[in-house]
Amino acid sequence: xxxxxxxxxxxxxxxxxxxxxxxxxxxxxxxxxxxxxxxxxxxxxxxxxxxxxxxxxxxxxxxxxxxxxxxxxxxxxxxxxxxxxxxxxxxxxxxxxxxxxxxxxxxxxxxxxxxxxxxxxxxxxxxxxxxxxxxxxxxxxxxxxxxxxxxxxxxxxxxxxxxxxxxxxxxxxxxxxxxxxxxxxxxxxxxxxxxxxxxxxxxxxxxxxxxxxxxxxxxxxxxxxxxxxxxxxxxxxxxxxxxxxxxxxxxxxxxxxxxxxxxxxxxxxxxxxxxxxxxxxxxxxxxxxxxxxxxxxxxxxxxxxxxxxxxxxxxxxxxxxxxxxxxxxxxxxxxxxxxxxxxxxxxxxxxxxxxxxxxxxxxxxxxxxxxxxxxxxxxxxxxxxxxxxxxxxxxxxxxxxxxxxxxxxxxxxxxxxxxxxxxxxxxxxxxxxxxxxxxxxxxxxxxxxxxxxxxxxxxxxxxxxxxxxxxxxxxxxxxxxxxxxxxxxxxxxxxxxxxxxxxxxxxxxxxxxxxxxxxxxxxxxxxxxxxxx
Length: 533
Ligand SMILES: Cc1cc2nc3c(=O)[nH]c(=O)nc-3n(C[C@H](O)[C@H](O)[C@H](O)COP(=O)(O)OP(=O)(O)OC[C@H]3O[C@@H](n4cnc5c(N)ncnc54)[C@H](O)[C@@H]3O)c2cc1C
Hints:
Elements: H1 23-37, E1 69-70, H2 73-78, H3 86-89, E2 99-101, H4 106-119, E3 122-126, E4 145-149, E5 156-160, E6 165-169, H5 174-181, E7 186-187, H6 200-206, E8 223-230, E9 233-236, H7 249-253, E10 262-269, E11 271-272, E12 276-284, H8 287-299, E13 306-310, H9 312-319, E14 326-334, H10 340-352, E15 362-366, H11 376-386, E16 400-404, H12 412-431, E17 434-444, E18 447-456, H13 463-480, H14 496-502, H15 505-518
Parallel strand pairs: 2-4, 3-4
Antiparallel strand pairs: 1-2, 5-6, 6-10, 7-11, 8-9, 8-10, 12-14, 12-15, 13-14, 16-18, 17-18
Helix pairs in contact: 8-10, 12-13
Bound molecules: flavin-adenine dinucleotide.
Flavin-adenine dinucleotide binds near residues 132, 193, 205, 490 and 528.
């Protein structure tokens, strides 16, 4: 196999070039916004790749690597950022990688990694580039940089129907993975919100969370075995359904964020596609009653695939139901069994917590395979959830963002209060006000994973200082109230200061020792997870 060109991604916003909003759409949006808030907003001119004046590449590509290594503006600007592209929309690419490599097979991957190691080039493994924590953003002042994009490793190689597992290459994107599994009637059933623009290798490297709310949802649960190349050689684990033989080698790789090696393929646990579905929308007149119902449903171990509670602000924002109530979406699915019974049980629990559910908000499909979550309030929420990005606000300096965490139920109400207070205070301080809402993305019997979204009042200039101040206030509050700095967005470079507080010191030392073995020269992703040696 040799290099195959893929659809072009946008260098300045989330998505593909074909989906970028036009200049007139951006102008129109800015004008509407200006009118709404009474401040003139002018969208910046979006740069074209060939117009960029990037720093000259500091690396000369040897002939034997030239068929899959690139130094053109498109490749280098695209790989300058993960999903945080606010600077890209302003045409700023101060630290692009010097070379972007697209190896197509293990030999080429081994060859390029060996070359990077020999010359001590900073080496960044790259999946879909959807990192929101600076995981693929080249570090400054560390010398020449090579980004290794895994997009050519895009095949489902083998399906084991009996064990219900599949051997899948790491650079495959979500939709392509599902497309290749579908003819056999299988699915991985792992849908992070970034599904369309992220890869299996990225999911494994970041311990991604899919958008099934309970039970098996983190990628960890689907990995049967892994293969990874490191500067010191190959790391491959044995295919096993379970094992008690010492610490699990896969669990060390899952979440290693590209600092130990580059994942090339994995045997993944797959499943039959769901045929039976059941969904209900329940309203609560208080956020507290709503999340209490969620706790009881999770602790009853009914394992709904969806158990998403939206606070009143988010309910109003994403569904238009603006009456101070919280919306709880409950969904179940199965390949083999009717889901009416578990849905009935969950509804009974919700009603016992003062939940209100009408018959038209209960939809059960008993085996035709039809989706049940596409209409009414649930459908409105689903559309708002899927249609992320868009590029209309890119470069406008709008202070919006999200952060997510997890916390045990005993601490939850106080935690929510403290995190909201600290974040709102920062919004008031640096933006002169703003809004904050919350939903649960995942729920465990011992605690929820809350996800907060903030929007600061528009203020000209100061975008980066404002974002930093809000992020710091929220993260400090999360840490001091006992939560984790991330439930599923990974650590990268952005979250590292708080990860340093969260993890045991001896664990950091052990991770450094492991990095020394796998990556003795420390070329892989310096500054991610641990301090570079
Ligand atoms: C709009 C949006 C929604 C999101 N929703 C979710 C969500 O629901 N759940 C969730 O978990 N995350 C979510 N994310 C975060 C992000 O999509 C995940 O972290 C995802 O797993 C990254 O996958 P990727 O292929 O894009 O990896 P990249 O962004 O390319 O890389 C992420 C990290 O993994 C490393 N890496 C990538 N590929 C490999 C490999 N083959 N071997 C070794 N290391 C590698 C990189 O060096 C980097 O440190 C979201 C992001 C955005 C922008």
